[in-house]
């Protein structure tokens, strides 16, 4: 094959041919003037097509070529890909040469931040927003506005972002662009003709959207001569490189030669690398005002590089941190126990590794009389819990039992002492003056046909209607205050089934309220089984006790003696079931004198016993724990998981 002449030695025409046009004109990291930077994010309700739109933009800007494009390029985690949801935010730098209007031909640097859409990860969305000047508000043209469309819009408006309204999936036959453009324009306060129409799937309208992003997004503003300040909006653990921290530079310059300081803790670190993602990491010397990129230090644990914190340089650093740092507090707790007790050390190591990548994950060891050694784990919400559990089982090959999830209660005793209860079995005994539980502000969006069904559901879950608005003649927004404990069970499933899947839900914590709560214990043969204790509202306690006792009666096999199952509040028994005695003679069917066959049967019976847990004298099969503790399968909290 003939080697082409080196561009510098070739004739001017040939040189043109060999120097790709884009490379020459693409501004390099650290040397990009803020005037040509556009930082934006895409916000939407779950499944409205953010990741697909991001893919299309990567292709159109040439960052990912046709060949290496794969669906949801930015969703890198296996679970993200399988479930089709985004868990961690991602940021990509894309050059875009405007193809229409005033600045046609000018190349800009777009930093796109793909955000997660689920309520559990709202904190990540709010951090990503801080790193941007504009938000593309994406709405499915066949579905219209949903609860998280609104929640995310309010977050974006709160962060002072320019909102670019876009209807997606206009290729669908069921799309109703006119209707939903009017709805969208109504909530933003723009003209329906300002709403862009795209199909992330076919790519239609995406080029026009990129031009519009350049036009509408304000350029970042910052002081280039000030000490560096950069906002951490994401932080991930990489097995080979340690913690990779994603930042948006607000002032000054972050250089790979700097030693840096985390302003919330004062911890300093050596900088090993800075760079940008495009779409794979590209090393750079510096990152200047308005730029979005990553930095790598020797840090091995994401908790030392917290989302929301400000990075500055150790020498001549900034003195004032950027606002808005908030520590994500776990909202839901559950016990996780290995089914095989020998796996406890593996579970401990696995949690340690997972925490490197998940700053919101909190855990501490706990022991249960029934389940043995395990951990009490704090999660941001139920989806977070499911994901952690799935990752533990899948990535570390563990079989786990999880106890029913519960929220954090604050208990004040009559003598004035305070207790924080994250595990029902630690509920204090004695004279209680007040119990407070967390409450949330829930927003439900639904076709107006289901108002009655939603009200009924919320009432049964101790909800308080705070307000109701019609978004259009047949869509309504309902606002409720609800105890978080009622939402973490099966509220969402019930809402979906009662509204044929049409309602959507978003919620945010709003504090605590005093409530009439009691602890219900389950006793087997008079012995309390800690794993089954639950804190429930007084009005639901009876139904809960009856349902769980009934369920355990069906799940626990008959033993050689009678086993009473009781549900009790303190010393007062509220429900009772009995498992009648049986003497199971495995040899009964084995008449005749074949001794080897008899021995085999006895051996088999012994094997079976190994999978039982002894609770007092009662043998409880693992399946009984799993089935009884599985979320939302109990009494008035029934529903599918
Ligand atoms: N017909 C059609 N389908 C689309 C379009 N955009 C996205 N989809 C489909 O809609 C589904 C959801 O798309 P995603 O891109 O995963 O949605 P998302 O908003 O990123 O979801 P999360 O990351 O979970 O918040 C996928 O099955 C896509 O193939 C579109 O323009 N037209």
Distance between the ends: 62 Å
* Number of helices, counting only DSSP H or I runs of 4 residues or more: 16
Our Rg estimate from Cα atoms comes to 29 Å
How much helicity do the residues have? 25-40%
Q: Which percent band covers the strand fraction?
A: 25-35%
Structural class: alpha+beta
Q: If strands are numbered along the chain, what order do they take across the biggest sheet?
A: 2-3-1-4-5-6
Which small molecules are bound?
guanosine-5'-triphosphate
Query: What is the general shape?
Result: globular
Q: Largest sheet, if any?
A: 6 strands, mixed
Q: Low-confidence segments, ≥5 residues, pLDDT <50?
A: 1-24, 79-89, 631-641
Average residue-wise pLDDT: 82
- Please give the number of β-strands: 32
Written account of the structure:
Helices cover 26% and strands 32% of the residues. A hairpin with a 3-residue loop joins strand 7 (229-238) and strand 8. Residues 1-24, 79-89 and 631-641 have low confidence and may be disordered. The radius of gyration is 29 Å and the shape is globular. It is of the alpha+beta class. The protein starts with 11 loop residues before the first helix and ends in a 12-residue tail after the last helix. It is built from 16 helices and 32 strands. Strands 2-3-1-4-5-6 form a 6-stranded mixed beta sheet, with helices on both faces. Helix 14 (538-555) packs antiparallel against helix 16 (622-629). The structure holds guanosine-5'-triphosphate. Guanosine-5'-triphosphate binds at residues 44, 46-52, 72, 84-86, 117, 168-169, 171-172, 199-201. Guanosine-5'-triphosphate binds next to helix 3.
């Amino acid at each position: 094959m003939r080697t082409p002449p080196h561009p510098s030695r070739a004739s001017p025409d040939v040189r043109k041919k060999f120097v790709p046009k884009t490379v020459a004109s693409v501004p390099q990291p650290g040397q990009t003037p803020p005037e040509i930077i556009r930082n934006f994010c895409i916000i939407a309700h779950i499944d409205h097509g953010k990741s697909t739109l991001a893919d299309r933009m990567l292709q159109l800007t040439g960052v990912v070529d046709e060949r290496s494009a794969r669906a949801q390029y930015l969703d890198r985690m296996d679970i993200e890909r399988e479930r089709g949801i985004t868990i961690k935010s991602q940021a990509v730098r894309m050059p875009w040469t405007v193809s229409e209007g005033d600045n046609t031909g000018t190349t800009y640097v777009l930093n796109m931040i793909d955000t997660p859409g689920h309520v559990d990860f709202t904190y990540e969305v709010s951090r990503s927003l801080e790193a941007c000047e504009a938000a593309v508000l994406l709405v499915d043209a066949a579905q219209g506005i949903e609860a998280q469309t609104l929640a995310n819009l309010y977050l974006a408006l709160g962060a002072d972002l320019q909102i670019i309204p876009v209807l997606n999936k206009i290729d669908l036959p069921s799309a109703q662009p006119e209707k939903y453009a009017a709805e969208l324009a109504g909530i933003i306060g723009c003209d329906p003709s300002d709403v862009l129409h795209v199909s992330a799937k076919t790519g239609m309208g995406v080029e026009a959207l990129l031009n519009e992003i350049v036009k509408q997004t304000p350029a970042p503003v910052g002081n280039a001569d000030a000490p560096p300040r950069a906002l951490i909006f994401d932080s991930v653990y990489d097995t080979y490189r340690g913690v990779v921290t994603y930042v948006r530079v607000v002032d000054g310059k972050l250089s790979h030669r700097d030693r840096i300081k985390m302003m919330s803790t004062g911890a300093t670190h050596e900088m090993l690398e800075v760079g940008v993602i495009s779409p794979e990491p590209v090393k750079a010397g510096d990152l200047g005002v308005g730029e979005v990129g990553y930095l790598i230090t020797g840090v091995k644990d994401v908790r030392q590089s917290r989302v929301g914190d400000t990075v500055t340089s150790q020498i001549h650093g900034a003195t004032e941190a950027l606002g808005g740092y908030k520590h994500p507090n776990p909202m839901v707790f559950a016990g996780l126990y290995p089914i095989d007790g020998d796996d406890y050390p593996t579970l401990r190591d696995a949690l340690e590794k997972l925490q490197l990548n998940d700053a919101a994950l909190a855990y501490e060891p706990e022991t249960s009389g029934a389940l043995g050694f395990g951990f009490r784990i704090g999660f941001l919400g139920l989806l977070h819990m499911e994901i952690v559990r799935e990752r533990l089982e899948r990535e570390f090959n563990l079989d786990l039992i999880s106890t029913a999830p519960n929220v954090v209660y604050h208990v004040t005793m009559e003598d004035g002492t305070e207790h924080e209860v994250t595990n029902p079995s630690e509920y204090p005994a004695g004279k209680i003056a007040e119990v407070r539980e967390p409450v949330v502000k829930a927003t439900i969006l639904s076709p107006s046909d289901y108002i009655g069904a939603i009200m009924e559901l919320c009432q049964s879950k101790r909800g308080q209607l705070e307000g109701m608005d019609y978004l259009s003649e047949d869509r309504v927004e309902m606002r409720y205050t609800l105890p978080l404990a009622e939402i973490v069970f099966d509220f969402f499933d019930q809402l979906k089934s009662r509204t044929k899947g049409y309602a959507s839900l978003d919620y945010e914590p709003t504090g605590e309220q005093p409530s009439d709560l009691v602890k219900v214990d389950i006793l087997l043969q008079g012995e309390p089984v800690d794993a089954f204790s639950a804190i429930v509202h007084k009005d639901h306690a009876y139904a809960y006790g009856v349902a769980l006792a009934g369920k355990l009666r069906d799940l626990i096999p008959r033993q050689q003696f009678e086993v009473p199952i009781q549900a009790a509040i303190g010393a007062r028994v509220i429900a009772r079931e009995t498992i009648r005695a049986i003497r199971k003679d495995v040899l009964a069917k084995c008449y005749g004198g074949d001794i080897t066959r008899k021995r085999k049967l006895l051996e088999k019976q012994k094997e079976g016993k190994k999978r039982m847990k002894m609770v007092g004298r009662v043998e409880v099969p693992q399946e009984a724990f799993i089935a009884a503790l599985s979320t939302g399968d109990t009494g008035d909290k029934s529903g599918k998981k």
